[in-house]
Amino acid sequence: MKKIKIVAGITWAFICLILIIILFPGLNSFSVSAARLPFMKINPNFTGGEVVQQVATEGCTLDIRRPVFDGLFRDRKRGFVQIDWRGNIPDTITDTIDYNLDKIPDFRIIIDRISSRTSLVPLNAKVKDVAVSTSTSYGWALRVGIQK
Amino acid sequence: MDNTLIDSMKKSFGKSLLYTLPMFLITFLFLTGGRPDFSNPASGFAFLITFLGVNVLYFLMHFTGKTDRFRAIIFIIFAVSLSFTLIKNMVEIRSSMSFSQADIVECKIPFCHLVIPMMIIPAAFTKSIIFPGSIIGGFANISSMLVLWLIATLVLGRGFCSWGCFYGGWDDGFSRIRKKPLIKKLSDYWKWMPFAVLLMVALTAALTLIPTYCDWICPFKAVTEFEQVTNVESAAKAGVFISLFGGLVVVLPVLTRRRTQCSFLCPLGAINTISNKVTPFTIKIDKKACNECLKCVEVCPLYALTPEGVKSGNVSVFCSKCGKCVDACSKKAIHYGIKGIPAGTMKNFSRNLFLFVSFLFIAVFSSGSIIFTLTGLFKLIF
Predict the structure, then answer these.
(1) In chain B, which among 319-348 make CB contacts under 8 A with chain A?
(2) Structural domain containing residue B135
(3) So what's the pLDDT on residue A5?
(4) Facing A43 at nearest CB: one of B124, B209, B279
(5) Do the Cβ atoms of A16 and B102 come within 8 Å?
(6) CB 3.0–4.6 Å: which of A16, A32, A93, B57 could bond A111 by disulfide?
(7) Per DSSP, what are the bridge partners of residue B337?
């Protein structure tokens, strides 16, 4: 039993030695494999959720993402909807958004990109406030707080 | 000097050189890909200094038989250079040490291993990662950091905290400033605190789906990156980061000569403590050789050794295998070991194998940021 323990210990130690030796040269391929694991995606609370509606105007694209209410076990009562403007965006953005795709406008947004001032006009009682309004590398991102 | 001593030193020198040769070749291969690039003098010189420096440290570990004093050098340099790398990266990209709302929205925040305790429950239930970083590609991506930590913690157990963590060097460094501690006795019950912190941050992160430790507690935000101070909440957070860094990473380590942040706060340390059960490498006490002077208990930076434990020949799972106790033991009763091998036997074999594995990890993991930092410094000076 003592000898088996010694052999098992040394074998495990040598396996660890091999693991460390292959870790760095294989890091890229291990990382790519790990990235394919089912849980390896960023939570929608950070990414803003998937794009469900794309509106193209003169040189500017408007991406409306799905409302995010994601919680640990079930949806939360409060969430947000993210809208991204890309491309040739005017200095003042004025848009009316229908985030729940019921063909009735839910809010009107006015963003002065130069002063970073954002005004929200709720047209639906579920629309609450401006959570984030910021310039990004691709244009402008807006998160509006909403209720389920 | 008598001839026997000179002969033994020559023998030891040759033997140490022989032990260093595989490390020399492997680090050269891993750092250069077999083709060193000296086209840029600053980075070429930085590479040369780093490469030779790490190998000299490894040689000295074998030649002197001491571990901790040489481990600490690379460990502390790693912590400082990593902070420099992160800050320089942030300043170059964003012209600031703080990140903005846009960086969060675009998921551009560098990922570090301290997020891992908070992402486990949400990953299990929501099948997603609650961190605004990049899964693959870009600087400090989630996938690479996860693989690095997973393998390192499997191989080294809590040894990761002394041989791989790029923050641990900060409190390790400050704990070495005074020769003698001003505060000698701190209840070692505090060492269970990281489990409470782990439970708290894991639960709060699961409930809010926000990495709460990073958002509110992490002391190392003070030397890496933090949220832009734009309102009362972000100012309060910055206050917490700076206070915890000052208290647990600077002041208490100086006063106690212990790594207090690692011992009393770090939630990942708690997880690594559990992984100490898996790793093959351990610290062993040869009861026959031990004279119970308890010098090892006195120097242990992580409260892993207790008088009762030493008397019964047990080292607790809190051990990070830094080697401070091994260096301090005048009877060589405490030594690196491999699970299954009885204490007091195959000491050199176990130490050599552990040193090769752990040093290779820190040497390759740290070299990139050390080279980057040295290159930056050379460019600044010349």
Answers:
(1) 338-342
(2) 97-278
(3) 93
(4) B209
(5) no
(6) A93
(7) B282
Number of structural domains chain A divides into = 2
Residues B266 and B290 in one domain: no
For an interface test with A, the pick among B26, B32, B106 (most A C-beta atoms closer than 10 Å) comes out as: B106
**DSSP code at position B110:** P
B168, B260: one domain: yes
pLDDT at B189: 86
Nearest to B183 by CA among B243, B268, B256: B256
Using an 8 Å CB-CB cutoff, list chain A residues near B206: 72
SS (H, E, C) B3-45: HHHHHHHHHHHHHHHHHHHHHHHHHHHHHHCCCCCCCCHHHHH
Q: Which domain holds residue A98?
A: 44-147
What average pLDDT does this structure show over B15-34? 94
Mean of the pLDDT values across residues B186-198? 91
* pTM as predicted: 0.92
Q: Give yes or no for residue A45 having a pLDDT over 90.
A: yes
**Percent with pLDDT over 70 in chain A:** 100
Per-residue pLDDT for B8 more than 80? no
- Mean model confidence pLDDT for chain A: 94
Residue B13 shares a structural domain with residue B114: no
Give every strand in the sheet of A92-97, ordered side by side: A92-97, A107-112, A117-122
Q: Does B281 touch chain A (CB under 8 A)?
A: yes
Beta carbons of B279 and B156 less than 8 angstroms apart: yes
Residue B30: its chain A contacts at CB < 8 A? 24-25
Contact residues on chain B for A25, CB-CB shorter than 8 A = 30
Whether B340 and A6 lie within 8 Å, measured CB to CB:
yes
Q: Decide if B301 contacts B176 (C-beta within 8 A).
A: no
Query: Which of A17-21, A56-60, A141-145, B293-297 bottoms out in mean pLDDT, i.e. has the lowest?
Result: A56-60
